[in-house]
Structure formats: structure tokens, C-alpha cells
Specification:
The protein has 132 residues and is an all-beta fold. The chain has a domain of 75 residues: OB fold (Dihydrolipoamide Acetyltransferase, E2P). A hairpin with a 4-residue loop joins strand 4 and strand 5. The chain is elongated.
Length: 132
């Protein structure tokens, strides 16, 4: 495995001493590139700092309440080693399915006689009231 690399707060504009309001990872976590690591809050917005590459968190260097600026080290991340198995994606050809034995055609069925259409029934009128 490669040596851990420091992950720094990226360019966040003219902001300095921005408080960390949330730490989204812990040592030992596996993260993917662009997965959020921490959340910062300025007086105008909240920003999430993403992982620069896939890897495993080795050490956190900030906690909730710490103030950070551009270039502050937030954690060390050990780069994930490439998988030895090729990952399947839409561009990877798949092996053709094993051929199946041909199926016998279905036995012919006797034709059915067409049924005569029935005449529509007229709606029945309500019974007339009887007078006594």
C-alpha cells in the first residue's frame, strides 16, 4: 500500500478561519473520490470538502469546532490500491450466455368454434307501482 497523503482544505475563496461544523468520516473508513469528508460553515454558506481520490482514512487532524483555512491539513488518506479484478461496467463485454436446448413446438390445439355474438340486452324498466 502507498504511504498516506495529507488532504488539505482546498481553495475556499477569501475565507479564513472557517469553523468545522461536521466531520463525516473516521479513521478506517473507505472513501471514494468526491465523497464528502468534512463540512465547513462560513457566514454565507456551508461547504463540504470532498476526498481527492479513493482511499482509507488513516488519521483525522481536525474536529468539530476547529477553525481551518485554505491549505490546512484535515486528514491523512492512504490511496486505495487498484483492484485486481476488472470492474464490470457498461463498456466491458460480457461472456455470451450458454446456449439452451431447443424446445419442442407446442402441440397444436383444436380450433375453437366462433361463438355467436349475443344481442345486447335492453335495460329493464323499474316495476310500476301497484295501486291498492
Amino acid at each position: 500500500m502507498a504511504a498516506p497523503k495529507d488532504v488539505l482544505v482546498p481553495d475556499i475563496g477569501d475565507f479564513k478561519d472557517i469553523p468545522v461544523i461536521e466531520v463525516l468520516v473516521k479513521p478506517g473508513d473507505h472513501v471514494k473520490a468526491e465523497e464528502s469528508l468534512i463540512t465547513l460553515e462560513s457566514d454565507k454558506a456551508t461547504m463540504e470538502v470532498p476526498a481527492p481520490f479513493d482511499g482509507v482514512i488513516k488519521e483525522l487532524r481536525v474536529k468539530v469546532g476547529d477553525d481551518v483555512s485554505e491549505g490546512t491539513v484535515i486528514l491523512s488518506l492512504e490511496e486505495a490500491s487498484p483492484s485486481r479484478e476488472p470492474q464490470m461496467n457498461e463498456d466491458t463485454p460480457t461472456a455470451p450466455a450458454a446456449p439452451t436446448a431447443p424446445t419442442a413446438p407446442a402441440a397444436p390445439t383444436a380450433p375453437t368454434a366462433p361463438t355467436a355474438p349475443t344481442a345486447p340486452t335492453a335495460p329493464t324498466a323499474p316495476a310500476a307501482p301497484t295501486v291498492s
